């Protein structure tokens, strides 16, 4: 939950073939993590789809370059789920540019183990396609302007790596239009420079994963802080973008 976008996906197999025991048609498609205890296949599939949507929503961010250029569209990626549920060999089938493909791949690489596919009663490798639709949502952009994000001594829109390190002992604060502090449900740090993108998130605190992002920061890139807050039961994403000197 890092930025403002619509996300739509559908797991679909590629054309029917078998290559080194990797299948694209199986009796039972793999299930995303978290639904292992369900007996009903229909409920389990529903749970799997919802868990996958939630995972992608929580681990993807709209690249600043794409958002600034108003780039929208669908990135298609494919990947293999092996016999024990590991995600393998993710690749881009079709990109829309401006960093969207790299972001989509980073989410695939961060996935936990799946429950593997089965064919004739045995776990098998299966190859899947996953379309991810990036679509800016103007009404949420307007809602986000009601909130202000601050962090320690940082002012303006320029930072250095040293300045970022010096502020890791402070909390990220988000205030509403009345100046009241609001709870941060999800926090993301990202560094972007040309075709390079690295990010991590937390449940609202600055953890070691976020600090690792700061270690990747280099002059000439962009450092992006994104916080998710709730308004009327929906998430609003508040961002602050810094140019790294």
Model description:
The protein has 245 residues and is an alpha+beta fold. It has two domains: 12-136, TonB (TolA/TonB C-terminal domain, 2-Layer Sandwich); 139-244, Immunoglobulin-like (Sandwich), CATH 2.60.40. It is built from six helices and 14 strands. The protein has helices at residues 41-59, 64-68, 100-109, 138-144, 161-166, 208-216; strands at residues 12-13, 18-19, 22-23, 73-81, 87-94, 117-119, 122-134, 148-151, 158-159, 172-175, 186-193, 196-202, 222-231, 234-244. Strands 1, 2, 3, 4, 5, 6 and 7 form a seven-stranded mixed beta sheet that branches. β4 (73-81) and β5 form a beta hairpin. The chain starts with 11 loop residues before the first strand and ends with a strand. Residues 1-10 and 12-19 have low confidence and may be disordered.
Distance between the first and last residues' Cα? 27 Å
The whole-angstrom Rg is 20 Å
Q: Give the CATH architecture of the largest domain.
A: 2-Layer Sandwich
CATH superfamily of the largest domain: TonB
SS strand fraction = 25-35%
- SS element count, helices: 6
SSE class: alpha+beta
Globally, the shape reads: elongated
Work out the number of β strands.
Answer: 14
Mean pLDDT: 83
The parts where pLDDT drops under 50 for at least 5 residues are: 1-10, 12-19
CATH topology of the largest domain: TolA/TonB C-terminal domain
The first-level CATH class name of the largest domain? Alpha Beta
Whole-number total of structural domains: 2
Largest sheet: 7 strands, mixed
Element-level helix/strand string = EEEHHEEHEEHEEHEEEHEE
Helix content: 10-25%
């Amino acid at each position: 939950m890092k930025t403002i976008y619509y996300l739509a996906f559908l797991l679909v197999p590629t054309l029917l073939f078998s290559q080194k025991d990797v299948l694209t048609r199986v009796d039972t498609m793999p299930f995303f993590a978290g639904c292992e205890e369900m007996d009903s296949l229909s409920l389990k599939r529903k749970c799997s789809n919802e868990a996958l949507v939630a995972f992608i929503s929580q681990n993807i961010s709209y690249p600043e370059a794409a958002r600034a250029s108003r780039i929208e569209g669908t990135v298609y990626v494919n990947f293999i789920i092996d016999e024990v549920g590991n995600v393998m060999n993710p690749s881009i089938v079709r990109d829309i540019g401006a960093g969207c493909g790299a972001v989509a791949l980073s989410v695939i690489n961060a996935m936990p183990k799946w429950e593997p596919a089965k064919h004739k009663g045995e776990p098998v490798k299966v190859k899947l396609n996953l379309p991810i639709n990036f679509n800016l949502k103007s009404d949420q952009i307007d809602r986000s302007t009601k909130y202000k994000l601050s962090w320690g001594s940082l002012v303006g829109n320029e930072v250095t790596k040293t300045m970022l390190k010096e502020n890791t002992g402070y909390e990220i604060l988000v205030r509403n239009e009345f100046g009241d502090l609001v709870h941060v449900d999800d926090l993301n740090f990202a560094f972007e420079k040309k075709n390079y993108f690295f990010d991590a998130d937390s449940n609202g605190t600055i953890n070691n994963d976020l600090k690792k992002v700061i270690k990747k920061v280099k002059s000439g890139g962009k450092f992006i802080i994104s916080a998710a807050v709730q308004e009327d039961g929906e998430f609003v994403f508040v961002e602050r973008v810094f140019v790294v000197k």
